[in-house]
Amino acid sequence: MSRVPKAHPRAESLRVRERLVDGFKSGLVVPEGLTAHGRGEAFDYILGERTSKFARRAIEAAVAEMLLAERPVISVNGNVAALVPAEIVTLARLVGAKVEVNLFHGSKKREMAIAKYLRTHGAREVHGVDLKFATQIPEVNSDRQKVDRRGIAASDVVLIPLEDGDRAEALTKLGKRVIAIDLNPMSRTSRAADIAIVDSITRSLPLMIKTAKGLSQKPREKLQKIMKKFDNNANLNASLRFMLERLENLSRG
Amino acid sequence: MSRVPKAHPRAESLRVRERLVDGFKSGLVVPEGLTAHGRGEAFDYILGERTSKFARRAIEAAVAEMLLAERPVISVNGNVAALVPAEIVTLARLVGAKVEVNLFHGSKKREMAIAKYLRTHGAREVHGVDLKFATQIPEVNSDRQKVDRRGIAASDVVLIPLEDGDRAEALTKLGKRVIAIDLNPMSRTSRAADIAIVDSITRSLPLMIKTAKGLSQKPREKLQKIMKKFDNNANLNASLRFMLERLENLSRG
Question: What is the pTM of this model?
Fold first, then answer.
């Protein structure tokens, strides 16, 4: 049962936060994850807590990219697992992607807890938790990033919902195609990505699933066309302008 | 010792967050407080992590208001205690204000921990922790708000650094003059307040102390003049326009 009063003007946002706090209490989420979520909330507040048409375009391109990929991987951290565990598993199945636990604040215990949580939500295989398959990739400003030899290390396309800027840049430098979900259109993650979806993961994952169901019926050429016409910089600037207009309207109100 | 790498592009923000996470680990801060801090970080990022001239004006008016007040009170929650405990005590002394622990997510244990933490930072008297003096004020959308009979209940001016919109509105409805510190110029707290300081508490508290030292030497008429010329709505709109300009510049960069 939710502890959020139904009448609260921002009940949905509070319910999502509550789910995250529950994830924190059960060991999936670290304190830093709660703070990061709050940052997202502020940008979402400016966005009007709705998926923009620019986010919809990015979602379409992202799903096309994942369907066309040879070895797509979805990278999962504590916040992602706590907020959209079943959606991650469903999307991975629909686009043929592997699921890998990849943590900025890593610990064996938390990795295992997240993998277990994903399994209870239907995941058959979860990478990133078996040291036997661990390898490292170079990363600026922090420890080297541990990845799975069978997962991110071997991937061509990586979906990183909620990722740090250094890690996003590290992946693009390795030649991976990177799809980010990030509510800040100015973040290094959004700018480093090939496709950045400026939206909350609780809204965009269900939309990605719906889009994957539709696009998986389409011919390869159609998907390539969608992918090629997407321009991440132009889309990010449009998202930012959209947020600016929202702020301008709010400032008049 | 800070765990933040000095070279990180946003080291100061990370150090503040670290102090909050430490406060969380020692039981001052709740998970929801970490999320709330993250929201502030995002707005501060847009502000450029600097105190604007509009915030400086609000600070001047706020300090004048507190110096003129009969029974000013500073309301302290977990985040405030974790981030600026000594500054709260110093400001209270300079303006003759009482300090009251007032929690949105209340618990006896946390109240006591916060009061103790304030005492180790020099507070002689901390209100809000003795049930003998507890009374309640009406509040929309949540449980009634517990306040101290000798503190907030009897106050004419309340400083609420980091407060929920419902609580801020409840105080203004009771006829209190409300001074808020809130990084979101569109929040209900900022709009409900008589004076809203759109700035981080880690920057604005030291500035309030400096201002209190200066203004306490001034005649009463001078303080009244400062107070009367302040227009909260105009100041909030100016703050918002300032943020808009920042976003516009960021979007060009």
Answer: 0.84
Among A247, A248, A250, A252, pick the best mutation site for testing chain B contact (most B Cβ within 10 A): A247
DSSP B71: S
Interface check B54 vs A, CB under 8 A: no
Direct distance between the N- and C-terminal alpha carbons of chain A, in angstroms, rounded to an integer: 35
CA distances from B241 to A41, A229, B50, B115 (A): 21, 34, 15, 38
Chain B hits for A36, Cβ within 8 Å: 38
- Measure in Å the smallest separation between the Cα of A97 and chain B Cα atoms: 31
Q: What is the DSSP string of A84-105?
A: -HHHHHHHHHHHT-EEEE--SS
Structure token pair of residue A127: 């990478």
* A177 bridge partner residues: A157
What's the pLDDT at B1? 47
Kind and range of the H or E element at A196? strand A195-197
Give the pair of three-digit tokens for residue A38: 């709050």
pLDDT band for position B206 (cuts 50, 70, 90): very high
Evaluated on CA atoms A239, A241, A244, A248, the torsion sign reads negative
A6 interface with B at CB cutoff 8 Å: no
Distance (Å, whole) CA B23 – CA A175: 41
Hey, are the CB atoms on A42 and B37 less than 8 Å from each other? no
CB of B144 less than 8 A from some CB of A:
no
Would the CB atoms of A250 and B240 count as touching at under 8 Å? yes
Q: Which of A20, A39, A243 to mutate to test the interface with B (most CBs of B within 10 A)?
A: A39
What is the nearest CA distance from B129 to chain A, expressed in angstroms? Answer: 25
Secondary structure class of A129 (helix, strand, coil):
coil
Q: What is the pLDDT of residues A127-142, one digit of tens each?
A: 999 999 999 988 877 6
According to DSSP, the residues that pair with A147 across neighbouring strands are A135
Q: What are the structural domains of chain A? A: 53-244 (3.40.50.12640)
Q: Helix, strand or coil for residue B185?
A: coil
Return d(Cα A37, Cα A184) in angstroms, integer. Answer: 11
Nearest 5°: phi and psi at B25?
-65, -30
* Cα–Cα distance, A59 to A95 (Å, whole number): 13
What's residue B5's pLDDT? 61
User: pLDDT-based confidence at B183, cuts 50/70/90?
Assistant: very high
> What gap in Å lies between CA B55 and CA B238, rounded to an integer?
10
pLDDT, tens digit, 9 for 90 and up, residues A16-59: 888 999 999 999 999 989 999 999 999 998 898 999 999 999 99
